Amino acid sequence: MKRTKPPIALAGLTVSVLALQACSGGASPSTSGNASGGTAVKGGTVTVLQTTDFSYLDPARGFDGGVNAFYRLVYRTLITKAANDAADPNAMVPDLAEGLGQVSADGLTWTYKIKDGVKFDTGAPITAQDVKFGISRAWDPEIGIGAPYLRQLLATPATYQGPYQSGENPAIETPDDKTVVFKLKAPFPEFDAVLSMPSAVPFPVGTGAGTTFINDIVASGPYDLDTFTPGSTIKLKRNPNWDAATDTERKAYPDAWNFAIGIDGATIDERLIAGQGADVNAMAGSVQTATIARLQTPQLQDRVVKAPSTCLTYVGLNTSKKNLSDVRVRQAINLAVDKTSLLNATGGNQFATIASTIIPSNVSGHADYDLYPSTGNTGDIEKAKALLTEAGLPNGFTLTLDIRTRPVAQAQGEAIQQSLKRVGIDVKLNVIDAATYYETIATPSQQHDAAITGWCPDWASSASTFLPPLFDGRQITDKGNQNLAQLNDVTVNAEIDRIKALTDLAEANKAWGELDQKIMELAPVVPVNVENRIYLPGSNVAGLVAPQGDQDYAIIGLKDASKG
């Protein structure tokens, strides 16, 4: 998936990424603490309160949980994830396509047919050429900084730089207006899921060059942009050219959506607790840690929706930096960090669970191990100091840690400061605005020694979108880089290739768990915790089902459209 973000929104959701959603499928959640009660009706306006702006309206640029959830309202792709209230909410289902992909015997060719009646907000039909064009934008060096999977998998020449500079993408064929054929470099059994990513959104041929889609969009989903004031408000209106008969996953109950941006997190929580006036129709991302205790009252408990996260909060250690290039130093940091202190800074055990692995326990492929144990998870100072001495740093060193302008991130940063001070490592905190944080740390020239960040898998039932984006050294890029550790290990890269080609999902997931441990032997990150998400939607909001990844705005509506 993608980087996680602070409470709401995922772009406004929790860093503790993004997005997305990786557990094996199961029954849809009940309404007992897992969904907001009541039945949604057509009409009204739902308001989403959030602290930070979305990263980008342009899906070729955006790749984090909050904006991915937003994209589902305005964009469609050939394939999409099933709705959060589906029998299997992690299944991949046809969206613009008539069915899932038809794969060739050698696994290198995937073919899709586009449904009749699907249109852009302009009224123009969505054609195979539009799908090809929209996807090809992901190769543009300035625009294509979002989801990387298509660039990694398609047999596109290394010199290709998107449709504006290089023209046609030879790895995508369109034999007619309804047929799209993808040519892969190597077999990838989960290619349907790749086409559910935001970088696979179609656009009319020739549109969207430069910064066109920074402040405007061409919608293919049930809603279109009404007004947009960056940093303040996004309002959506119905797209009259969206046909519900072609879309089984989006219910599109409200007439309009209002995203109110730039509101302090504590203020959001206070408004939702009070639930007065139009705020009965409001919702947000996960509540702040300081608010959790206040949700125990009977009048609020009925509104609380709890969701165990599949997202890992971790500290990325930049292996290209002085001192951190030594594996012993990185191992020492893993040993020295007081994870119990970090848990308390995050909100305590009601809000998060301490992590010792990269793949969270509720993600397929998880293997249970702890290479850097300590009593009470408070850190093993003796072993850490011994490793630093062995690395020629008995007196420690100074490093700079990037953190977001969020109270929880500040508290986490201070906890790391105090942890590492015990072994002589002086941590300087570099605070970056939350709205630009992930773009900044994903630009290697702007990266410092370490960063507190998070990651969510992009699709279910596989860890294939957890380890490869974070640790495949061949995918390190000048912009939009997800391998914050800048780890480029030949053995890790080769194992990623081997596992990705496995057609037996159970075998692949077992192998991902084994690779998880091999990577942690290199200690490119410090797994911190897996945060839960706790939502408090307004009393008139229906359809907020506990997500394993993003909230599903497309099934949310109001119980009474006349209220508020």
From TrEMBL:
**Any idea which UniProt keywords this protein has?**
Signal
As for membrane topology, the entry says: Lipid-anchor
Under Gene3D superfamilies, the record lists: Dipeptide-binding Protein, Domain 3, Periplasmic binding protein-like II
At the top level, the lineage of the source is Bacteria
Molecular functions (GO terms): peptide transmembrane transporter activity
What processes does the entry annotate via GO biological process terms? Answer: peptide transport
Where does it reside? Cell membrane
Please give one Pfam family short name: SBP_bac_5
Work out whether the entry's keyword set contains Signal: yes
> Where would one find the signal peptide in this protein?
1-21
What PROSITE patterns has UniProt attached to this entry? Answer: PROKAR_LIPOPROTEIN, SBP_BACTERIAL_5
Specify the Solute-binding protein family domain's residue ranges.
92-475
Q: Name one GO cellular component term.
A: ATP-binding cassette (ABC) transporter complex
What family is it from?
Answer: Belongs to the bacterial solute-binding protein 5 family.
Give the protein's recorded name.
Peptide/nickel transport system substrate-binding protein
